[in-house]
Amino acid sequence: ASTSTGIPLLLAPQSLDNPLVPNVPIGAEVPVTVKLDNLGPMVVNSDGTLSRIANWESMTEAERDRTMRVITTRNR
Predict the structure, then answer these.
(1) DSSP state, residue 57
(2) pLDDT tens sequence across 11-54
(3) How deeply is 12 buried, as exposed, middle or buried, from its count of CB atoms within 10 A (0-12, 13-18, 19+)?
(4) What is the pTM of this model?
């Protein structure tokens, strides 16, 4: 599908059907906190952009601990 100007539209992610993916209703009256721990820590790049560790879920606990120490120091 595309707009009248020919710009292609992005498809919505399929996560709504996946019970393992947390969904937060937009416009919730009560403040909602969502933890994205399984995505790993946020990394502040030298140009100020944010990224994540791509292989976080496949790391061992020891690798995660070392990575967290390095990122915590670097993000300061």
Answers:
(1) G
(2) 766 666 777 776 666 666 766 666 677 788 888 888 889 899 88
(3) exposed
(4) 0.51
Interatomic CA distance for residues 45 and 74, integer angstroms: 9
What are the start-end ranges of the E strands in 1-76?
42-44, 50-52
- With contact defined as beta carbons under 8 Å apart, do 23 and 35 qualify? no
Are the CB atoms for 43 and 50 separated by under 8 Å?
yes
- The Cα–Cα gap between 21 and 24 comes to 10
Where b means 16+ CB within 10 Å and e means fewer, 37-63 reads eeebbeeeeeeeeeeebeeeeeeeeee
Asked if 41 contacts 67 with a C-beta cutoff of 8 angstroms, the reply is yes
d(CA 53, CA 49) in angstroms, rounded, equals 13
